[in-house]
């Protein structure tokens, strides 16, 4: 059975923790590291500290996984950190995650000089010498030394108790981690990311992640509502941790307009997010261009420029590859493929977003409509018809599906009619035909006659015209109303224009005789008001004929129907002319009353 792909690791990294703390327990567990853990947790930063784990096999298997599941690692170097093979193994794993997964690593030098760790001198040198003398770790020593040197070369926090209070340093660390986390927090993607994994796998090769000697612009294009922004957000979440800075500029088209205060605000957002600034004032977009180039030319950034519709927007936000540091990736989403080419985005780095296939469309619609994989039996055909008409556009599937969650037949009818009008009727005949075919014979006959002859007439008047009992009529009308096939306003019954046209086609298919009869009725309806009683009488006859036809009984012959009508209306001469050229008359009637 298909399952919702929201758990796929290819959509977003499986972060379980914000921060992993690596430390030497004997030195700092009961003091600095414990206080740091409490301070991080207090502000909502999910931090892993191995207080609950015991040394042994559990640690050996659990800690590497905890490191992989963390966005950041804080390494608290202390005097005896390098004496512990557990700590050194942790450090090797942390640096592997930094290199392979883009994990952020921040060292704290607690009462020890960074140079002592970097150069493996002093107490660090002594600890490593003792480990070497044991003869057990020769194969690991080189990795340990490399990891120590690489970590010590990173930007971090030195601490000397005599120059800075411990609480002050902890506050600085918490603020820095909070700032970085805010820049790397996952963007909201979609409640039900159906089919998203397919698009990510398709676009990922265009990014060339790991190719750090070039700046690359990638274009994602496609029609409105196809999911370009959602895909871009998912890709941003997946890869932003690999870059020194990142910014997702959403809805640039709207934000750069007059109501959005122009492109200068978008430029300010770009700089604040990539540089970690609280605010910046550019004054105008021309100055913004200069500042972006000056501040980001050496920085490896991931930038998404979403929903672009004008070349000037790109020129002022990402005017060229030289604006950004090596390894940067600029992702542009737009409806206009030509805009990408005009900005110099390589064709081989541009990707069109395809519509969802029928399977994924059905899955997405059902998740949003029923909160499960499959629709209830009574909604199977209607659901499939909606899916076919929407034709794989995720935004429409989500919007319409969500609007129908927990709704009854009337709301389904409203959405069906709305989509029908929006799609210019294409495909909606199938939906309405299914709804009509599912009616009881009585309701079907009532609907077809109202749709084609009695639309807009008073409810009681229609009941009298059809000459059926009040209870049967009300039962039929209630059923049609609940299915949103008719609506009642001020006691008058109305049918949509599209349903009236479908009624004509259904009647045509049912019987050429009834079709001709309908042409005459429509002709009489508009020709004169004096014959209204006769028209109503003919409508009554039509209703009975439709009902009999639905019951499978023999339909009255053509000559008898024509004769009955002409006798009732006194239009024998007109019918004689009609009989001479019936096809011409039909075309004329439809043209006249369309």
From TrEMBL:
Residues 15-181 form the TIR domain. Gene3D superfamilies: P-loop containing nucleotide triphosphate hydrolases (3.40.50.300), Toll/interleukin-1 receptor homology (TIR) domain (3.40.50.10140). One of its GO terms (molecular function) is ADP binding. One of its GO terms (biological process) is defense response. Keywords: NAD. The gene is LOC116194941. It comes from Punica granatum (Pomegranate). It holds the Pfam family NB-ARC. This is TMV resistance protein N-like. InterPro entries: Disease_R_plants, NB-ARC, P-loop_NTPase, TIR_dom, Toll_tir_struct_dom_sf.
